[in-house]
């Protein structure tokens, strides 16, 4: 069981990690403490490893700053489920090993604070109001994710996963 | 179905497979562009990969442009580290502070081979589509991987076709045309997509950079101009290629456009915001910091000085643009008009150095982004417009349609300027608000440790 953190449409990277708390402003060891600093001040102190972020359309839009995703990674976020994702955020998540999954119905089923279970094998997000369907990721992305990100994948295999 | 879009053609050719929108592709990159604001993360990424050297020292282009010359000791230090890295890696192509904005130089100095894939550590790497390259912005880990392997993975994007028809009228520019498109499509309307610009292949390179670069403002992965003079024969979308959307822009009917803060897709005809007071005008950026843009401002100023209440910041997009503008007297004319001319680079476009905005200030910028805090204080407002609109704002202190100024004879020109200057709303209120806000911030937190006060934003 994990807690769901619910967000709306167009959640931008500035809300995930305001630019003024970028690692070079605050330090590599501290910047994650400012995750959702303005949007959800209680987030950084109460989030637990495995918690799931649930959002609407265009999740992670805005700048290409990877450290927004890095902050989520440090907090051990179990996955992000949204109606759709901004492209740079999406690939940054895969690269850093955070499951990112599109779901047409998750946002409608989940309320903030719900107990949810992200079942990547079954492709479901189980919620108190029923199970949301997750769109399967390409095998290429799954392989990178299961290695824990592109860096670990490349260290282990020396090249990208094969495309089928 | 065999017809292909430009993106499908380029990515099929580079990957050596027949790929379609939605497929994944692994492609070699012809260049990797890296700039100063992400170098630490890129170096860390390469280290994590266990890679000591870049894959090809001839194919990496490094720039110091985002906060250059260095505004603080911290930034200066990171520039120093970057220079050492460039030397240690024996990277052939390095442009230090003052040489200009990465994207301008990438195109101007011929680093963007048409029909190839180029990745950059900056979201406006789409600019390389101005000469027919598939340029895409990526995060630090992606850039580190591309530097290490010389390859990247991509999802082949769907494409949106933007068809320009007709002719721009005098006083209306390609900046107005692309701002109109951004307004129509919205900031996420081209998400994951490649925007193809049709009907503009023969434009001067600079105008094409304005178009391609601003495809980023619609969330696009790439923005490619079709049928440029640089493009090889094969680089042409098939007539029956499939597009998720076609946007037609009638240039004959186009008015000067302004993007109203804090959204770049909140776009109106200039008349809708005419009379808005402006405190500072920024002429520069990879979008509109070239000689032609500076000339348009000089053309409109007609030797007059800017309004006493206004500052005009000019930052040429590259040293070449700067030197051309020096040679033909454009810089002298801007200086005589009261402009501050900064070192070629990003300048205040991203609010890190060289004329950042105070709280409650209103800026008219020729750049591409106007979200809260982009150019300094989050309390400031940024209107985006063409160089002509910028020139009027500098001259009169208000936003206005540039065309009457361009058309007026000498005598009515001065009357028009005087009239507009008198109409400028009192800014006392705004200034007082800015002062209060500053005091509030200083009172609330010790100024030295308050990131809010410095509000530095990374352009990524
Ligand atoms: S948009 Fe501004 S900050 Fe970004 S590359 Fe262009 S000039 Fe530099």
Task: Name the descriptors.
heterodimer, A: 164 residues, alpha/beta, Aconitase, domain 4, seven-stranded mixed β-sheet, 7 strands, B: 460 residues, Aconitase, domain 3, 2 domains, five-stranded parallel β-sheet, 16 helices, 18 strands, 17% strand, binds iron/sulfur cluster
Given helix and strand content, the structural type of chain A is: alpha/beta
First-to-last CA distance of chain A: 34 Å
What's the overall average pLDDT of chain A, rounded?
A: 92
Strands side by side in the biggest sheet of chain A: 4-3-2-1-5-6-7
Tell me the β content of chain B. 15-25%
Can you tell me the overall shape of chain B?
A: globular
Structural class of chain B: alpha/beta
Count every beta strand of chain B, where a strand is a DSSP E run of 2 or more residues.
Answer: 18
| Attached small molecules | iron/sulfur cluster
CATH architecture classification of chain A: Alpha-Beta Barrel
Present the secondary structure layout:
The complex is a heterodimer of chains A (164) and B (460).
Chain A: E1 2-6, H1 13-16, H2 23-26, H3 43-46, E2 52-55, H4 67-74, E3 79-82, H5 87-96, E4 100-102, H6 106-109, E5 115-119, E6 124-127, E7 130-133, H7 139-146, H8 150-157
Parallel strand pairs in A: 1-2, 2-3, 3-4
Antiparallel strand pairs in A: 1-5, 5-6, 6-7
Chain B: H1 6-15, E1 24-28, E2 31-35, H2 39-49, E3 60-63, H3 73-89, E4 93-95, H4 102-108, E5 117-120, E6 134-137, H5 140-149, E7 151-155, E8 159-165, H6 174-185, E9 194-198, H7 205-214, E10 222-225, E11 245-250, E12 257-259, E13 267-269, E14 280-284, H8 285-288, H9 291-301, E15 311-315, H10 319-327, H11 330-336, E16 339-341, E17 362-365, E18 381-384, H12 387-396, H13 403-407, H14 410-423, H15 428-444, H16 451-454
Parallel strand pairs in B: 2-3, 2-5, 3-4, 5-6, 8-9, 8-11, 9-10, 14-15, 14-17, 15-16, 17-18
Antiparallel strand pairs in B: 1-7, 12-13
Helix pairs in contact in B: 2-5, 6-7, 9-11, 9-12
The complex binds iron/sulfur cluster.
């Amino acid at each position: 069981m994990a807690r769901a953190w619910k967000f709306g449409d167009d959640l931008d990277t500035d809300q995930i990690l305001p630019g003024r708390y970028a690692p070079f402003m605050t330090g590599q060891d501290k910047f994650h403490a400012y995750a959702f600093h303005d949007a959800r001040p209680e987030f950084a102190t109460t989030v637990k490893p495995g918690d799931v972020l649930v959002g609407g359309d265009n999740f992670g839009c805005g700048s290409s700053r990877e450290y927004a995703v890095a902050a989520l990674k440090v907090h051990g976020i179990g996955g992000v489920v949204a109606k759709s994702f901004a492209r740079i955020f999406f690939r940054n998540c895969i690269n850093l090993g955070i499951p990112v999954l599109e779901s047409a119905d998750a946002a409608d089923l989940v309320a903030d604070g719900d107990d949810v279970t992200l079942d990547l094998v079954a492709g479901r997000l189980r919620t108190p109001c029923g199970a949301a369907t997750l769109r399967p990721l390409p095998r290429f992305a799954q392989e990178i994710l299961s290695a824990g990100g592109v860096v670990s994948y490349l260290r282990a295999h020396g090249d990208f996963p094969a495309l089928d | 179905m065999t017809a292909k879009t430009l993106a499908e053609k380029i990515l099929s050719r580079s990957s050596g497979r027949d790929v379609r929108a939605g497929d994944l592709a692994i492609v070699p990159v012809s260049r990797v562009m890296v700039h100063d604001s992400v170098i630490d993360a890129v170096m860390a990424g390469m280290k994590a990969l266990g890679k000591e050297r870049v894959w090809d020292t001839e194919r990496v282009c490094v720039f110091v442009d985002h906060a250059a010359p260095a505004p603080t000791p911290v930034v200066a230090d990171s520039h120093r580290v970057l220079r050492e890295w460039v030397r240690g890696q024996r990277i052939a192509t390095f442009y230090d502070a003052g040489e200009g904005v990465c994207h301008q130089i990438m195109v101007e100095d011929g680093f963007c081979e048409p029909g190839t894939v180029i990745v950059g550590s900056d979201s406006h790497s789409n600019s390389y589509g101005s000469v027919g390259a598939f340029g895409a912005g990526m995060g630090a880990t992606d850039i580190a991987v591309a530097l290490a392997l010389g390859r990247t993975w991509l999802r082949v994007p769907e494409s949106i076709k933007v068809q320009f028809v007709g002719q721009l009228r005098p006083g209306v520019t390609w900046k107005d045309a692309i701002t109109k498109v951004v307004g129509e499509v919205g900031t996420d309307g081209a998400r994951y997509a490649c925007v193809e610009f049709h009907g503009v292949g023969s434009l001067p390179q600079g105008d094409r950079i304005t178009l391609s670069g601003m495809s980023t403002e619609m969330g696009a992965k790439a923005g490619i101009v079709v049928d440029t003079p640089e493009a090889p024969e094969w680089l042409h979308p098939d007539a029956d290629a499939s597009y998720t959307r076609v946007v037609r822009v009638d240039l004959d009917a186009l008015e000067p456009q302004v993007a109203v803060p804090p959204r770049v897709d909140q776009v109106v005809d200039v008349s809708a915001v005419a009379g808005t007071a402006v405190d500072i005008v920024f002429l520069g950026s990879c979008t509109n910091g070239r000689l032609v843009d500076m000339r348009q401002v000089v053309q409109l100023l007609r030797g007059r000085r800017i309004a006493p209440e206004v500052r005009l910041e000019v930052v040429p997009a590259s040293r070449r643009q700067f030197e051309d503008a020096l040679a033909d007297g454009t810089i002298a004319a801007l200086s005589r008009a009261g402009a501050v001319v900064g070192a070629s680079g990003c300048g205040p476009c991203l609010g890190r150095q060289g004329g950042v905005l105070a709280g409650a200030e209103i800026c008219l910028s020729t750049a591409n982004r106007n979200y809260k805090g982009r150019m300094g204080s989050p309390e400031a407002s940024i209107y985006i417009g063409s160089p002509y609109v910028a020139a009027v704002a500098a001259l009169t202190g208000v936003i206005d349609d540039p065309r009457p100024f361009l058309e007026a004879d000498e005598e009515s020109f001065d009357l028009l300027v005087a009239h507009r200057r008198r109409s400028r709303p009192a800014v006392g209120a705004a200034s007082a608000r800015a002062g209060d806000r500053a005091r509030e911030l200083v009172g609330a937190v010790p100024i030295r440790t308050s990131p809010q006060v410095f509000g530095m934003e990374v352009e990524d």
